[in-house]
Amino acid sequence: MNNDLHKPLQRFEDLRGILRYVPQFRQRVFVIAFDGALMTQPGFASILQDVAVLQSLNIEVVLVFGARAQIRALAAARGVTLTNDDGMGRTDATGIEIATDAIMRQASELVANLTALEMPVAVTNALAVHPAGVIEGVDLEYTGRIERVDQETLRALLKADIIPILPPLGYDGKGTTLRLNSDAVAVEVAIELKAAKVIFVAESGLTGPDGSRLAQISLAGAREMYKQKASGQDVSMLSKLRYAALACQEGVPRVHIVDGTQDEALLAELFSNEGVGTMIHGDEYQQIRKAQPSDVPDLLFMMQQSVDDAALLPRSRDQIQSTIEDFFLLELDGHPIGSVAVHAYEEEGVKVAELACLFVRRSHKNKDHGRKLVAFAEETARQRGCDIIFALSTQAFRFFEEKMGYIVSGPDALPPSRRAKYDASGRNSKVLTKTLK
Ligand SMILES: CC(C)(COP(=O)(O)OP(=O)(O)OC[C@H]1O[C@@H](n2cnc3c(N)ncnc32)[C@H](O)[C@@H]1OP(=O)(O)O)[C@@H](O)C(=O)NCCC(=O)NCCS
Asked: Are 340 and 377 in contact (CB under 8 A)?
């Protein structure tokens, strides 16, 4: 096992990138669940090192592991045919014996590896479990269902900087060992601990029908993919989609699925804007909020791309600072991904509003964020007593016309003071107006 914890932080810009996220994640719980198959791969050492990095940033990590690959291998070695290997279907007496042997061996290996990284860990029995019972006429025998999570034990371990490890096994009041699905364990624990994230480190990433990575899907999207048994997704991925949707529904803000065979996937997903895996989000975690003076660097940084493309007028730090009251930020999971400004004019007894600085980060385009920001700006203008809103645009005028119902007017539609600036700028932007009802 390689003890070089500093490997993922070799580049200074990486370190800066990571540090931006640290305050919001400090003392928050991340439940990390990895597929058992990854444990046999050379890259597994890096996954554990990434976990060590998270812990060193004061993130409270809970580890859950899957065991399908190990159970299959052990069954094959013993010449046994399994009734089920993923903890969802029926587990017979032979199956639970094999699962227990394989899982306990994995737990031991994991403790050994983490101890070598000087991470204190404890394999815990923090779940109250019952037999899953008879489902659709089939007695699931030694397959269990999670009844309760022992929050106190887990919290006590986390408080003492000990990483709890939860194997996909449970024990009922009668002393029976039951097989659990590891995705279900991860999600039940995350819900109970009000975790900030569940991260499924899988054997592959989640891809769309064309084979490209799905960077983000909503709770509804994940549920739909699970229900439709989306083509190309194996049972392991479908189980992740199912439990990801449950986690989001029960208040876990973010679930990530990353391809654990990619180097540094865990850190890259968590600490970069674009990510490398799939983020599943409960829709309500988007918000548009008033910008603060401390947001000026973010606003400047975000808008730079459009300024370079000449889609937005360059604005200085001072210009934004002096009108910061007019700016709004669209945040996803606490990160700004878009902006809009509403400037109100009252001239010659007429109140009109200007919608300006509309911007959505390239990585988040075509997800209705632009529409939401425009609708929000219009509502703000209405509340400020304006009957008309206008926008100046060189490249997005069709967006305003076709998607938002604006009409192309001439510069005469501008209030006099704005008209003077318009003429002086020489940008020849289209003037778009909309009557607010
Ligand atoms: C214009 C902008 C805000 C749209 O953001 P967005 O979050 O992608 O927009 P939405 O997801 O709500 O809407 C996307 C729809 O608008 C269309 N659209 C986006 N930009 C467009 C443009 N410049 N011209 C015409 N249509 C456009 C898309 O094709 C898409 O159409 P659909 O109905 O087929 O899905 C974004 O592209 C942007 O930041 N552009 C650069 C800055 C800019 O030009 N700002 C306006 C000056 S005030």
From this structure: yes
Residue located via tokens 């510069």: 411
Q: Where are the beta strands (DSSP E) in 204-268?
A: 216-218, 254-259
Ligand 1 center to 9 CA (angstroms): 36
- Centroid of ligand 1 to alpha carbon of 358 (angstroms): 10
State in Å: Cα 310 to ligand 1 middle: 15
Distance CA 263, CA 259 (A): 9
Q: In the structure encoding, which two tokens stand for residue 301, read together?
A: 């940084």
Is-contact 199 72, C-beta < 8 A?
A: no
| pLDDT > 90? residue 88 | no
| Fold (topology level) of 287-435 | Aminopeptidase (3.40.630)
Element housing 24 (H / E): helix 12-25
Q: Which fold has domain 7-281?
A: Carbamate kinase (3.40.1160)
Report how far residue 62's alpha carbon sits from residue 31's, in angstroms, rounded to the nearest whole number: 5
In degrees, to the nearest 5, what angle opens at C-alpha 125 toward C-alphas 84 and 198? 70
Q: In what order do the strands lie in the sheet with 121-123?
A: 121-123, 163-166, 60-65, 29-34, 197-202, 254-259, 278-281, 216-218
Residue 100 has pLDDT above 70, yes or no: yes
User: In this structure, which residue's CA is closest to atom 16 in ligand 1?
Assistant: 399
How far apart, in whole angstroms, are the C-alpha atoms of residue 103 and residue 12?
Answer: 39
Q: Nearest C-alpha to atom 1 of ligand 1 is from which residue?
A: 396
pTM over 0.70: no
User: Whose alpha carbon is nearest atom 28 of ligand 1?
Assistant: 366
Q: Mean of the pLDDT values across residues 136-143?
A: 94
Cβ < 6 A, ligand 1 pocket: 306, 311-312, 356, 358-360, 365-371, 391, 393, 395-396, 398-399, 403
Task: Look at ligand 1, atom 18, and give the residue with the nearest C-alpha.
Answer: 399
Distance CA 31, CA 324 (A): 38
* CA–CA gap between residue 246 and residue 83 (Å, rounded): 26
CA-nearest residue, atom 35 of ligand 1 = 366
Mutate to test the pocket of ligand 1, among 357, 359, 399 (most ligand atoms within 8 A of CB): 399
d(CA 87, CA 72): 12
Mutating to test ligand 1, I would choose from 357, 366, 397 the residue with most ligand atoms within 8 A of its C-beta, which is 366
| Across 346-372, average pLDDT | 91
| Tokens 């679930």, residue located | 255
d(CA 370, CA 378): 12
* Domain boundaries, given as residue ranges, for the chain: 7-281, 287-435
